[in-house]
Amino acid sequence: MNRQLTTICTDIKTAINDVVGDHKKANVFILTDDNSLKYCYPLIRDLPCLKEAHLITIASGDENKNIDSAVKVWQYLSEHDANRKSLMINLGGGMITDIGGFVASTFKRGIEYINIPTTLLGAVDAATGGKTGINFLGLKNEIGVFNPARHVLIYIDFFKTLDKQNLRSGYAEMVKHALIDAWEEWRKVLDFNLEDVDFDVLRTMVERSVRIKERIVEQDPKEQHLRKALNLGHTFAHAFETFSYRVNRPVLHGYAVMWGLLCELYLAHVKFGFPKKELLKLKYMTKEYYGMFSFDCNDYEILYELMTHDKKNESKEINFTLLSDIGEIQINQTASKEEIFEVLDFYLMG
Ligand code: GLY
Predict the structure, then answer these.
(1) Are 321 and 231 a contacting pair, CB within 8 Å?
(2) Which of 210, 213, 214, 220 gets mutated to test ligand 1 (max ligand atoms within 8 A of its CB)?
(3) What is the 175 CA–ligand 1 centroid distance (Å)?
(4) What is the rounded distance in angstroms from the CA atom of residue 163 to the CA atom of residue 215?
(5) 146: which strand partners?
(6) Domain residue spans in the chain?
(7) How far is the CA of 265 from the centre of ligand 1 (A)?
(8) What is the pLDDT of residue 314?
């Protein structure tokens, strides 16, 4: 797998010019959704290298990351003479970089693509690492391929239009990266003021966060071993997220990730002696910035059931990534139903 090149840019126009450069102008295809079309595309549309680029827009929202939207983009590419030398630019959040990467990777057996994430969550998670895909038959990312973008361009100014909740949602994945990496990173994410975001500080933190993910992906691009570290928090998180939709109280992905991290670090404390002091710091941060998702012990069975269907499981057992300390990763762990219920008790005790 090629190494992908992620650039944290201070000037998005120069960065696009550098990477699109002298690519044949009429052979560039830009994919947006209605949000990135409105808020981000206007900042780049006048660039000379994009003057003749084709613009494709699909409906926003994870529910549209499906085969119908993919067909729409494939069809557009075919009808506008896209060829092996075409270049696709995915301008949007994780939904656009996932589906755009998938469409590009499969059109005529693969054309090159560039990701320009427009959300913090997209920048630190979906845009990097080469996972592409669409949802299918109600299953998330059921169809897809591993194929990295030629470049990922991260422009922090795009995130200035995000609301507080979406910034915090993205930040949760940065907390995860810090926990799996090192004490220094963990201290930095704890110190950051999420109440009054300093975007210059955020820029350097995003860069560090993305490098953590890149180092892991480079060693295990297809998630056979080390990349499973990036699943920390996500077994509980996916259960919380799915449950939140079922009970009509949908939550942002990153919020579920924070609650999932809290649960899984408690499990890590029980099983591996993960330091209680750090667990309590995470708990404080979660309560302060994310609040707590409300459920009660009558919901334990359904949450457990959702975890048994997690696609990270390789057998009947529920698969977790845990930590024995900051940066000390323990992949392929499991827990009994009783242990999982004990974690939920810990969560509810507040
Ligand atoms: N979202 C975790 C990964 O890319 O592996």
Answers:
(1) yes
(2) 213
(3) 14
(4) 30
(5) 131
(6) 5-161, 165-349
(7) 19
(8) 76
Residue 143 has pLDDT above 80, yes or no: yes
Residue range 94-122: average pLDDT? 98
Whose structure tokens read 């085969």?
A: 67
Percent of the chain at pLDDT above 90? 93
pTM: 0.95
CB of 240 within 8 A of CB of 303?
Answer: yes
333-342 long-range contacts, CB within 8 A, separation 24+: 333/271, 335/267, 335/271, 337/304, 339/267, 339/270, 339/271, 340/267, 340/303, 340/304, 340/307, 341/300, 341/304, 342/270
The residue contributing the CA closest to ligand 1 atom 3 is 230
With a Cβ cut-off of 6 Å, ligand 1 is lined by 125, 129, 131, 227, 230
- Does 1.20.1640.10 match the CATH number of domain 165-349? no
Other Cβ atoms less than 10 A from the Cβ of 67: the count is: 14
Architecture of domain 5-161: 3-Layer(aba) Sandwich (3.40)
Alpha helices in the chain (DSSP H): 12-20, 34-39, 41-44, 67-79, 94-106, 120-124, 164-181, 183-191, 199-219, 234-246, 253-272, 276-289, 300-308, 337-349
Distances (CA, A) of 157 to 13, 55, 330: 12, 22, 36
C-alpha of residue 229 to centroid of ligand 1, in Å: 9
Residue 2 DSSP class: P
pLDDT tens column, 168-218? 999 999 999 999 999 999 999 999 999 999 999 999 999 999 999 999 999
Find the 47 Cα to ligand 1 centroid distance in Å: 32
Place of tokens 């259960």: 239
pLDDT score for 106: 98
Tens-digit pLDDT profile for residues 306-341: 999 877 777 779 999 999 999 999 999 999 999 999
